[in-house]
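Take a careful look at the sequence and tokenised backbone pasted below. I need to know what the token row says about the fold.
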Amino acid sequence: MEFLGGANSIWKLACRRAISDGVPRRSLYVALIVGTVLNLINQGDAVLGMASINWLKLILTYCVPYAVCTYGAVSYQLKKADVTLEPFPPRFSSCGSFSPSFCCSGASRN
């Protein structure tokens, strides 16, 4: 990702991607579903009143899926942007001259 001008710009772009394009909402939905399931598994007895609830574990159990989902979305968006910004390899027409989509005669290549 040299086109961004260094690591500082990459972090800025990643932070912008993390708070835009529906990423926070999707991450919240995933965290609520996955976090609830994990809390029921890990602290089921506390939820049912048989033990005390560990509040730190409860909060972290929701934070981890949120962070993982956000990281996945941002890394996908950055990779997708990197692929679309790379120049395409040069193509040569059937007549030997460089032309991305037309031959020397102007006829379209298929």
